[in-house]
């Protein structure tokens, strides 16, 4: 029998993530309040530290089960993701030459059972991978509106020679 490998710790005893994120990426827990009438979850507040840029544009997108969207990068604006339903891995790759986490690869798991707001600065490649049995539904509050004539969006295929991770089983791109 081969020697079994011990799991690496991913959270502290207090439940805090031990994943090192690229410099400038922030994650804020989003509390869902439930009562007999239903629920409410605040998604973005300008008073939060990661809400410092004004809200200028919002849209929602989905990722189907077993599918991937990405890699994508923005040069001039920040994405602010809040997952509403489903389960998704958000993979991050820091491509900023002047960053202390340059070429660092990280992963944040987003779930309807633990809603969070993730800020993704310009210069961070990101890929969305649905890991659940239903559509992942995400709201994005980017810091600049989409420019249809000159999109601030650049893409690489999920499996490429630049970013050191592979998704051989996933569909999409």
Structural class: mainly beta
Separation of the first and last Cα atoms: 38 Å
The coarse silhouette is globular
Number of structurally distinct domains? 1
Rg, rounded, reads 17 Å
CATH homolog superfamily: Jelly Rolls
What is the typical, i.e. mean, pLDDT?
A: 91
What is the total tally of β strands? 13
Any low-confidence stretches, pLDDT <50, length ≥5? none
The ordered string of helix (H) and strand (E) elements is: EEEEEEEEEEEEE
CATH top level label:
Mainly Beta
Proportion of helical residues: under 10%
CATH architectural group:
Sandwich
**What is the number of helical segments per DSSP (H or I, 4+ residues)?**
0
User: CATH fold name, please?
Assistant: Jelly Rolls
Percent in strands: 35-45%
Major beta sheet summary = 6 strands, mixed
Overview of the structural elements:
With 173 residues, the protein is an all-beta fold. The chain has one domain: Jelly Rolls (Sandwich). The chain contains no helices and 13 strands. Strands 5, 7, 8, 10, 12 and 13 form a six-stranded mixed sheet that branches. Strands 1-9-6-11-4 form a five-stranded antiparallel sheet, with no helix packed on it. Strand 2 and strand 3 form a beta hairpin.
